[in-house]
């Protein structure tokens, strides 16, 4: 099991432990990943600590079971550029689907890497917010070979399909995205921002060898086992959440790799925030943490992309 496959399974179990998923739904999603009932039950028990409050019908009172109402739109929404759907040539002659948002006068380009639910409206909105801030942005649909995220009526099935895709295919598709982005913002520096599963892919992309990336801002992504960033030239701003114990377990490995690589880096740990705090459509959204993280990301790109 790869780092990302393990991450997806543990995220389902963590969502159950936090009361976001019932036990029945968590078991269904783990079954889609190929877990038998015994293995799935053991994983849920390990993450929930045997909490008797976590049942099929009652979520844990510690975490809301529905997304909170945001008092205002996420920072940067007012100036966001509406993204458009595009296709472009990928590896092995296949066509990749993507969301593209073009800044009127781009200062650089950003490859946005989606979460484990695929290319959602939330990720599309992030590409538009980057373009509004002066960075043309491209978000590749990593389910393109399977017909695209829109082909899945069950989001859990999209997640399960992503868990089966080889890591080398993700890297190849993302590198094709960088090529397309470079073509569209010719002469400009490139960065990448990934969230959750996509944050792990951002780390994997940095560890995959030389690339045109000048900067990266992975959000609470698992660092790959034995990840080596020595071939990367990207300045990295690694974003974490103070309460995200699961992903934070790989933070020391990420920082050690950043130190060895010798490139500029910074680690921001959002206080009073949990995993996926940046996603304004999710149950763990934290507006204050998201606003501060967005400010830091734009400052980082302002320094290392232009």
Features:
about 300 residues, globular, alpha/beta, 2 domains, eight-stranded mixed β-sheet, 8 strands, Rossmann fold
Describe this structure in words.
The chain has about 300 residues and is of the alpha/beta class. It has two domains: about 5-50, no CATH class; about 80-305, Rossmann fold (3-Layer(aba) Sandwich), CATH 3.40.50.1820. Helix content is about 40%, strand content about 15%. It is built from ten helices and eight strands. It has helices at about 5-15, 25-30, 35-50, 120-130, 155-165, 165-185, 195-205, 245-250, 250-260, 285-305; strands at about 85-90, 95-100, 110-115, 135-140, 190-195, 215-220, 235-240, 265-270. Strands 1-2-4-3-5-6-7-8 form an eight-stranded mixed sheet, with helices on both faces. Strand 1 and strand 2 (about 95-100) form a beta hairpin. Helix 1 crosses helix 3. The radius of gyration is 18 Å and the shape is globular.
By CATH, the topology of the largest domain is Rossmann fold
Tally of contiguous helical segments: 10
CATH structural architecture of the largest domain: 3-Layer(aba) Sandwich
How large is the share of residues in beta strands?
15-25%
Largest sheet entry: 8 strands, mixed
Q: Structural class of the secondary structure composition?
A: alpha/beta
Low-pLDDT parts are: 50-70
What is the mean pLDDT? 92
Query: Order of strands side by side in the largest beta sheet?
Result: 1-2-4-3-5-6-7-8
Task: Sum up the overall morphology in one term.
Answer: globular
At the first level of CATH, the class of the largest domain is Alpha Beta
Order of helices and strands: HHHEEEHEHHEHEEHHEH
Distance between the termini: 39 Å
Radius of gyration: 18 Å
Strand runs, count: 8
Total discrete domains = 2
The residue fraction in helices comes out at 25-40%
CATH homologous superfamily assignment of the largest domain: Alpha/Beta hydrolase fold, catalytic domain
């Amino acid at each position: 099991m790869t780092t990302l496959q393990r991450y997806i399974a543990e995220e389902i179990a963590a969502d159950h432990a936090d009361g976001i998923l019932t036990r029945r739904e968590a078991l269904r999603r783990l079954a889609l990943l190929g877990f038998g009932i015994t293995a799935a039950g053991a994983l849920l028990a390990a993450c929930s600590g045997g909490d008797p409050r976590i049942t099929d019908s009652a979520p844990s009172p510690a975490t809301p079971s529905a997304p909170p109402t945001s008092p205002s739109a996420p920072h940067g929404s007012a100036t966001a550029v509406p993204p458009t759907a595009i296709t472009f040539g990928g590896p092995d002659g296949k066509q990749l689907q993507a969301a593209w948002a073009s800044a009127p006068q781009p200062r650089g380009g950003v490859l946005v890497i989606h979460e484990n639910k695929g290319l959602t409206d939330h990720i599309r909105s992030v590409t538009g917010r980057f373009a509004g801030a002066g960075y043309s942005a491209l978000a590749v649909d990593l389910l393109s070979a399977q017909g695209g995220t829109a082909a899945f009526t069950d989001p859990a099935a999209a997640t399960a399909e992503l868990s089966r895709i080889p890591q080398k295919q993700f890297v190849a598709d993302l590198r094709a995205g960088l090529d397309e982005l470079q073509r569209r913002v010719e002469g400009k520096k490139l960065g990448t921002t990934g969230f959750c599963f996509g944050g792990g892919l951002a780390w994997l992309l940095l560890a995959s060898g030389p690339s045109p990336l000048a900067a990266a801002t992975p959000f609470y992504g698992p660092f790959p086992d034995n990840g080596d960033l020595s071939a990367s030239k990207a300045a990295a701003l690694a974003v974490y959440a103070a309460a995200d114990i699961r992903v934070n377990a790989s933070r020391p490995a990420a920082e050690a790799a950043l130190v060895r690589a010798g490139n500029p880096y910074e680690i921001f740990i959002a206080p009073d925030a949990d995993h996926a705090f940046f996603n304004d459509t999710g149950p763990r959204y934290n507006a204050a943490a998201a606003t501060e993280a967005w400010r830091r990301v734009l400052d980082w790109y302002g320094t290392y992309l232009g």
